[in-house]
Amino acid sequence: MYIPRPNQETRIPVIHKLMEEQPFASLVTMGATGLFASHIPMVLERDGTEFGRLKCHLSRANRQWRDFTPEVEALAIFSGPQHYITPSWYPEKQESGKVVPTWNYAVVHAYGHLRVIEDSDWLMAHLESLVTIHEAELPAPWKIEDAPADYVASQIKGIVGLEMVIERLEGKWKVSQNRSEQDRAGVAKGLAELDTTESLAMKALVDQRN
Question: What is the pTM of this model?
């Protein structure tokens, strides 16, 4: 990924936070038929390795788990807040007019070699972890044991697990760092006035880099 120095994010806790807040990732692999991508939720485990470990699962009908080349690194892409930035928000527009639109965003690329796992105990533990994470904030969290055991067993037979020990991480936070203090303040003000979930999430990132 092309990352200009001002946009580079190397702090692992910051990168991990985005991965946990935006766990629906794009898994990209290279195989005999070329590039293949699946869009799936992932669980990040901070297991004592340098960058952590990713766990996920695919349907057995998804050929990606059979087709990828194990010797080639896989790529998991986690996309964070993103937003269009109009040059009308820059005070520089009134001063020189030398401004253009852009797009702000935060994204993480995680690289590593995949391991296929078909063990039912591993798969059950992974699914329980996935459910626990995403049901936690609901008023009446659903649990796997709420479903009939034979039904759960049949569902597990239809999936395979994938595990990646992350070997390298890239973080790119393009959040108006290249603009003047006045222009960054204008961007933050414009995003705040839009008052949408997306604009406020981006404003928070812009504010953090000021």
Answer: 0.93
> Coil, strand, or helix at residue 57?
strand
CA distance 117 to 121: 10
Q: Where are the alpha helices (DSSP H) in 91-161?
A: 92-95, 120-135, 149-156
Whose tokens are 């890239």? That residue is: 170
CB environment 53-73: b (16+ within 10 A), e (fewer) = bbbbbbeeeeebbeebeeeeb
pLDDT higher at 66 or 94: 66
Q: What is the pLDDT of residue 48?
A: 86
pLDDT at 19 over 80: yes
With 70 as the cut, is the pLDDT of residue 210 above it?
no
Rg of the chain (C-alpha set) = 21
Per-residue model confidence (pLDDT) at position 153: 96
16 vs 167: CA distance, rounded Å? 14
> E strand or H helix at 45, and its extent?
strand 43-45
Cβ(76)–Cβ(42) under 8 Å?
yes
Give strand pairing partners of 68: 31
Quick one: pLDDT at residue 197? 96
